[in-house]
Amino acid sequence: MEFDIAVVRGLQVIDSRGDPTIEAYVLTEGGGVGRAIAPSGASRGKLESIDLRDGGKAYKGKGVMRALEAIEKYIAPAITGMDSSNYRSVDKKLIEIDGTPNKSKLGGNTCTAVSLAVINAAADTAGVPTFEFLGGKRARTLPTPLMNIINGGVHAGNKLSIQEFMIAPVGASTFSEALRIGIEVYKELRNILKNLFGPSAVNVGDEGGYAPPMTRSEQALNAIVRAIKEAGYEPGTDVFLALDAAATQFFNPGTGKYVIDGASMSPEDLLDYYVAIANQYPVKSFEDPFHEEQIALFKELRRALKGKALVVGDDLTVTRLSLIRRAVKEGAVDGSIIKINQVGTFSEAEDSIRFLISNGGKAIISHRSGDSEDVTISHIAVAYEVGLIKCGAPSRGERTSKYNELLRIEDILGGEGVFAGKNSFS
After folding, report:
1. What is the CA angle 76-79-85, rounded to 5?
2. Beta bridge partners of 204
3. In CATH, what class is 141-425?
């Protein structure tokens, strides 16, 4: 009985963009407390779950009072008394109450907050960290961070078409060392950008990375490679690079071409462009390199980059098992980004994680551009030993909170902790 849900409440709070979002609070009969805050994305796949917003004048229509009402009117009466440790049954009830393919009745934001609050409450009731509750005592692998240190696309106000230029400090032996390396490169990059473009170049974008007035991807890649070297590390050995193109955002459906770095490219030209980047720079992962409906191009790029870099789906797969299964079956991706709010419940995301792992794919646990101080994804990454996590740059509290939680988990694990490092890309 102690795991049974006693109280379910919601609260309107603020995310990292200053927009309202929902925090769910769950209390169990045993006194366990779980909280979770739903994030939001700027670059969204069209098959993602739908946030429930208020519309109207307040907060420019982005309020979540309707979501709070959904918790009070529909969710709380339905899941009160249910066993929080059997979180999959709770999520099944949420899916049943909503009854839509995209969580449009209750809201993907509402369901995400409640679903994650339930697992946190169950873990607290059990007296163990969430990563141990989900993964058991064998869970001990700390992920390699993919740190977005130059922001472009819809995450910044510059002219870079590619959305995220990331580093992965794989040469470390521990997570804490990897974080240190990443921060040292980030700080070195700050000096380089400031000298090249002036003080405004080190203003940061939505995910904490710098947003310099660059126009071409090569400028960003060259600056990062230089920063790695000047920080005392070797690109391609100590530190890998990774890109999130978010190509749907710069695809022109009228012409069928991609407008990138001021040029209009055919899909074939863009594929060659990515291959050239992989040959010139130590880029080990290409996320969403093409429009989300052009799965055949993902497959072609994966074939061209085999043994050199991963091809990863996000808008293509939106954490949905059916889409991930299709992409893996067709040989289009090496893995998928996992964002809980894309599907709306943890159980659905868990199904996708387990499928990827069992089929030799990469499940990359990810934040969103509009995020909060919630740290649940840090626990999920360790629980399933996925090897890779996206939390943004080592800057801004909604990003550093995830890194700090991973440091705490590393401390809890002590000598039993293992850092994924280069193995996370193999």
Report:
1. 130
2. 210
3. alpha beta
Strand partners, 150: 165, 210
Please give the average per-residue pLDDT across 179-205, as a whole number: 95
339 is a catalytic site residue: yes
Look-up of token digits 């950008």? 193
The full length of the chain comes to: 426
Q: Which of 207, 348, 350, 405 is catalytic?
A: 207
Instruction: Provide the whole-model pTM.
Output: 0.97
Number of helices (H), then strands (E), in the chain:
14, 16
Helix 295-304 and helix 267-280, axial crossing angle in degrees, nearest 10: 30
**292 in active site:** no
Residues 62, 103, 339, 362: which is the catalytic one? 339
Is pLDDT above 70 for 155?
no
What confidence score (pLDDT) does residue 43 get?
64
Q: What is the mean pLDDT of the chain?
A: 96
Amino acid, single-letter form, for residue 133: F
Q: State mean pLDDT over 311-338.
A: 97
Query: By the 8 A CB rule, do 10 and 110 touch?
Result: yes
Residue 112: closest CA among 31, 194, 52: 52
Q: What pLDDT score does 308 carry?
A: 94
Q: Find the mean pLDDT for residues 226-254.
A: 96
3-state secondary structure of 346: helix
Q: Which residues of the chain form CATH 3.20.20.120? A: 141-425
Please determine, for residue 198, whether its predicted confidence score (pLDDT) is greater than 90: yes
Start and end residues for every CATH 3.30.390.10 domain found in the chain: 5-127
Strand 33-37 relative to strand 388-390, pairing: unpaired
d(CA 391, CA 189): 18
Q: List beta partners, residue 283.
A: 241
Query: Domain 5-127 carries which CATH code?
Result: 3.30.390.10
Which of 370, 362, 322 minimizes the C-alpha distance to 338? 362
